[in-house]
Specification:
Length: about 200
């Protein structure tokens, strides 16, 4: 459909209405487009183009748009920074709202609660191409968000074992900003963060 070609891969309801402005009943047209899979409804008011338009959507961009305020973190962010070898299917984000899980036609998006005092520390507005940007955790914040939830870790030995299971490259670990990690640790005030910093000061392993 000609009007849809002008749309970006991810778009909201207002952009869609604008593309269909010459239709007498645009809402009926939208229902037809969804039924024919010309567009996919990610959630209320948020859509992506169907495969035939050859405009691949970006899950990281969608993650920022589905639920907010939020930023991408954890394994999802570490994969973005090429710090872990695994392909991540579940997109993990932090939010100052209640935690939530969205099951959508384009994938699963998990949002975990983060206190406001630590939310803004160590996050970046990063370019993804096509003049688009995403809010994503720095490598330091992404790792810290994971570690802060590991309340079962009670010793440096257990922390080292956990880091090894994550398969982080030693070179990437060495590049982490220790002053930023200290700032994040002060915000979280978790014993697991103390253990992480101690391990990194001892060169990890």
């Amino acid at each position: 459909m000609k009007g849809l070609i002008q749309l970006p891969a991810e778009f909201d309801y207002n952009l869609l209405l604008h593309a269909l402005k010459y239709y007498k009943k645009p809402r009926d047209k939208i229902r037809g487009l969804i039924k024919n899979k010309d567009i996919l409804r990610v959630k209320k008011g948020l859509y992506v183009l169907g495969k035939e338009y050859n405009k691949p959507y970006n899950k990281y961009i969608l993650a920022n748009q589905i639920y907010g305020p939020s930023y991408i973190t954890g394994q999802s962010a570490l994969a973005f920074w090429n710090m872990i070898p695994e392909r991540v299917e579940l997109i993990i984000s932090m939010t100052t709202k209640r935690k939530k899980l969205f099951e959508t036609p384009v994938g699963r998006f998990s949002y975990l609660y983060c206190h406001k005092k630590v939310f803004n520390i160590g996050i970046k507005l990063e370019h993804t191409g096509d003049q688009k940007r995403i809010l994503i955790a720095s490598p330091e914040k992404a790792l810290s968000d994971i570690i802060a939830t590991q309340t079962q870790i009670s010793s440096e030995k257990e922390m080292k074992e956990f880091l090894q299971l994550m398969r982080l490259e030693y070179g990437d670990i060495k590049k982490l900003d220790s002053s930023l990690l200290e700032e994040i640790k002060a915000g979280y005030k978790r014993q697991s963060m103390n253990l992480l910093l101690n391990c990194l000061k001892e060169d990890y392993v």
